[in-house]
Design brief:
Shape: globular
Strand order of the largest sheet: 7-8-9-10-11-6-12
Radius of gyration: 20 Å
Strand content: 25-35%
Low-confidence stretches: none
Number of strands: 13
Largest sheet: 7 strands, mixed
CATH superfamily of the largest domain: Gcn5-related N-acetyltransferase (GNAT)
Number of domains: 2
Order of helices and strands: HHEEEHEHEEHHEHHHEEEHEHEE
């Protein structure tokens, strides 16, 4: 049960029945705005949800800063002003919504660290042309050096994907998004997620997991885990292999944000994005 604002509820998996269809109608392509993402990162961001009549409010906190999100629609001016009084900022504001908020006099700033990276599915599947020369060489080197196999990530292979995840955590020596990634595998079918798993020399070595975004022409990759330092070219091979099996209706692959991490930004830029899903922070 989702309580009415100003009360709020913990996000539970049984809410998917009501919320997934609403998220599926969103056209802006913001990677946070899927039920799976909100549910899986509910603890990391302290997400809670409230009902606003026919609308919904999601609240959370990062680094002690309390924020709110309005994925579906803006409320009345009175309620909007009240929210800006209660919370530090509004997060994950789309291009369209930020224009409305700026017109109402709110302060809008680009949230570059949370821009989603967009890639051409066709380009990633082919890696043709000079700009992909280095990536193509890494894929070719991987193919010539190792025996490999890719399979759809179905329930049959979840145990192997969990093994990859555990080894990934041990290699890193830190948690990262481990808990969300593990739950995503365990609840994959309930959350409507799909992906691929990749074996090297007969052993599970990497997997990718995601879902379609609301506009229907984009596939968002929420998790991409692997023993990448152990197999040179594995990451590039997996990116190309997965892009090549995605249906042609997907023009874009959304590989989410870099979170302001310099190394991750450099890596994502090296994959040659064709654009970004821009997001904004709004304050009073």
């Amino acid at each position: 049960m989702i309580l009415d604002y100003p009360e709020s509820s913990e996000i539970t998996i049984d809410m998917r029945k009501e919320l997934h269809s609403l998220f599926s109608m969103l056209k802006e392509g913001v990677s946070e705005f899927t039920f799976a993402n909100i549910y899986l990162f509910r603890e990391a961001h302290n997400y809670r949800i409230s009902r606003l009549g026919d609308n919904f409010l999601i609240t959370g906190s990062d680094g002690g800063e309390r924020f709110f999100m309005l994925p579906f629609a803006l409320p009345s001016s009175r309620l909007l002003n009240e929210l800006f009084e209660r919370f530090s900022s509004m997060k994950c504001v789309s291009e369209k919504t930020k224009e409305t908020l700026a017109g109402l006099g709110f302060k809008v700033t680009e949230d570059r660290d949370n821009f989603d990276y967009l890639y051409s599915r066709e380009e990633m599947s082919r890696l043709s042309g000079r700009k992909f020369h280095r990536k193509k060489n890494l894929v070719n080197a991987f193919i010539s050096r190792y025996s490999y196999e890719g399979r759809p990530l179905t329930a049959k292979y979840v145990a192997d994907a969990l093994d990859v995840l555990e080894r990934w955590r041990r290699e890193r020596g830190e948690e990262g998004d481990y808990h969300a990634a593990r739950e995503a595998l365990e609840e994959m079918n309930s959350l409507g997620l799909c992906g691929g798993i990749y074996y090297v020399e007969g052993e599970p070595a990497a997997y990718t997991l995601g879902e379609e975004l609301g506009a229907g022409d984009t596939f968002a990759i929420h998790f991409e885990k692997g023993l990448f330092p152990s197999y040179k070219g594995l990451s590039e091979f997996m990116n190309q292999a997965f892009a090549s099996i995605l249906p042609e209706k997907y023009r874009y692959i959304n590989m989410e944000q870099d979170l302001g991490m310099e190394g991750l930004r450099k890596l994502k830029m090296s994959l040659r994005p064709v654009g970004f899903t821009k997001k904004y922070r709004v304050r009073k």
